[in-house]
Design a protein that fits this description.
Elements: H1 12-18, H2 20-29, H3 34-55, H4 68-125, H5 128-136, E1 142-155, H6 158-162, H7 167-187, E2 191-196, E3 199-204, H8 213-230, E4 241-255, E5 261-265, H9 267-277, E6 284-286, H10 288-294, E7 298-300, E8 304-308, E9 312-322
Parallel strand pairs: 4-6
Antiparallel strand pairs: 1-3, 1-4, 2-3, 4-5, 6-9, 7-9, 8-9
Length: about 350
Amino acid sequence: MAQWSSDIISSSGVLLWALLAPIGAILCIGVRQSIGWFAAWVILTAISGLADWYLADPILAPKPIVPTRTTIVFFALNFIAFSIIIFMLLRLSIGMNRKMHKSLEVAHQQIKIEQERSEKLLLNILPGSIADRLRNSDKTIADGFADVTVMFADIVNFTQVAANMSPSQVFAMLNRIFSAFDELAEQFGLEKIKTIGDAYMVAGGLSEDLTDYSAAVADMAIAMRDLLRRDFAINASHLEVRIGIGTGPIVAGVLGKKKFIYDLWGDTVNIASRITSEGVPGMIQCDTMTYHRLAGNFEFHEPQTIYLKGKGNMTVYRLIGRKGASDPDALPNADQGSSTALS
């Protein structure tokens, strides 16, 4: 009404204020939804121009150089064209801003996915606490532990069995067995340290999450032995393992800058490794420290004496199983290999 109470030129300020409606619609309700508002503004502006065209009195008005009706037409056209340009530029700017925002969201999501993937890969290589320290610091990671239980499992006659297989068959065989061992390590809350060829290394006591870690290592060793004896879908070649368990102080840390690995060192690690290689297929051998810790809940064969190069004679105890849960018929002869030498 304010616009139509006078000519379009005199009341052009009303048109400018009315233009705020479609511009506000772009900002508040969206680019697409604002088209109707702007179309309504254009139509009303055009109607105002047409009204002035017909209502202008060329007889009473002084004769300007440019006829009044022509001025009205061009004023309305210029006003509409200028407003369309402003509206389209604003619409394009907001549209591009939203596209950029969506692109940033997609990029952020992809970065998040990659971070989660990297996190998962890092946790597959390192214990969780070590991975956190490695992420947050560039310092060398080396820790001493006063008491850790270490287990090695070595597949018996792997070289001879693998000699008759293709590389893909060898990989598939090891992958099935070691993947099953990984599930057992997770089940018993232990840290897989590494695989070395056909050998598998696990440790307990590297974190405070598990208190009775020596028993957990023993339970995992029994589960590994029984798995290979009973599950021939995983162990199609009927392989057996030698297992050695040692308990004592160790040093642990991350070596290198590239292709790094979390590893353990110390006499405890050496003993566990050596009594594994001196073991009997299917037998779990423990050192004296481990035996005293497990004797209350686990059954053992009579102690055996073995000779280790550089260590001399050492007493080992061959683990049967949990008390009340052993299966003597499934165990190898306890008298086999009572005294062997490390070559």
